[in-house]
Design a protein that fits this description.
The protein is α/β, with parallel strands linked by helices. It is 29% helix and 17% strand. It is globular, with a radius of gyration of 19 Å.
């Protein structure tokens, strides 16, 4: 029987980023103290979370202690999560004449994008004592210039894609800015390619989207992400994915959602307890179904290509995931389904 893997991704960021309005104000990181409980739950079932960590959380002592110890024990992975507005080196953007959203990384000049990614990568590596090979963009943002930077910095995997969702109407800081349109993508792995180069000339960068499936034929999609009200839905999704013999499931949550009041979704302590009840039940069922724990980079390096190189490359039916097998990404780049 083919091995199946459960990938846990955690956007590890400051408290209640949703309600941050002053991009120059310091962001609190009290939620770092609440991550220990989540880590303990993951270890209970042998799962290995990937903490996609941004700059302010890499300065939080509880997170640093948890991360360093977990890296030594092999019980977690540290990746990068870029919130461009408060990640050095700082670069002023022209302020819009009306109230806007927080800046996307793609609003900065190309050289600034690379320097920000380079700085965060080295800072995380120095802080946690491990290579950084996985990334998720802040506000689910990614473009070809950021992808180029990730390739230059030897990243292996990005997981910014939210299949079926279009964030282009979510304003950034400057006029005309918006998020990434992931509406044509499905929950299958993609590989970044450049039509202007031979495939052998490029390092591999894999896009591993958050798992989601179509709820109906109207394009509405359900994420493999807890919201305090979808515990039964997640179990139903797992049943669908299990019957498909899906080789992996990618789950996501924000670190701030593990703390009461750390997000708009989980405000009261009782809501946190309900969240943990749902996650415990889900993780228990995943374990019963034979899913093994792995960090996202380990999965891509040691399992993804091995699965797809079997005698029957069409073994997995991804039709329930929707999305095209090839999607243009600009500047000669495109994502092609693996």
């Amino acid at each position: 029987m083919m091995e199946k893997f459960f990938i846990i991704t955690v956007d590890t960021e400051g408290d209640d980023i949703w309600h941050v309005t002053d991009i120059k104000a310091p962001v609190e990181t009290r939620n770092a103290e609440y991550i220990y409980r989540f880590q303990k739950l993951c270890e209970k079932y042998g799962f290995i979370p990937t903490y996609l960590t941004n700059y302010e959380m890499a300065e939080s002592r509880p997170m640093v202690e948890l991360g360093r110890e977990g890296v030594k024990r092999g019980s977690l992975e540290i990746g990068a999560h870029m919130h461009a507005w408060n990640s050095p080196p700082y670069f002023p953007l022209i302020k819009a004449p009306v109230k806007r959203g927080k800046p996307y990384l793609g609003e900065y000049p190309g050289k600034v994008i690379y320097r920000k990614m380079e700085y965060l990568t080295k800072y995380l590596e120095d802080t946690f004592g491990c290579p950084i090979k996985s990334h998720r963009g802040g506000r689910w943002y990614l473009d070809s210039r950021i992808a180029e930077s990730l390739v230059k910095l030897d990243y292996v995997v990005d997981c910014s894609c939210t299949p079926g969702h279009d964030w282009s109407r979510q304003s950034g800081w400057t006029m005309g800015s918006g998020g990434t349109d992931w509406s044509c993508y499905g929950s299958r792995p993609y590989e970044l390619k450049n039509s202007k180069k031979h495939s052998g000339d490029c390092k591999r960068l894999v896009e591993l989207p958050v798992t989601s499936i179509s709820k109906r034929n109207d394009g509405v999609r359900a994420w493999f992400r807890p919201n305090g009200k979808n515990g039964q839905q997640l179990l139903a999704m797992l049943d669908i994915l299990r019957k498909m013999d899906c080789p992996y499931i990618e789950f996501m949550i924000h670190s701030s959602e593990l703390m009461p009041g750390g997000s708009p979704t989980f405000i009261q302590k009782g809501q946190i307890e309900k969240l943990y009840f749902d996650m415990d039940a889900l993780f228990c069922e995943l374990k019963k179904c034979g899913y093994k724990g792995t960090g996202i980079t380990d999965y891509v390096i040691n399992h993804l290509y091995e699965e797809r190189s079997c005698e029957n490359p069409d073994l997995f039916d991804y039709s329930v995931f929707g999305g095209d097998s090839r999607c243009d990404f600009g500047r000669g780049y495109y994502w092609e389904a693996i």
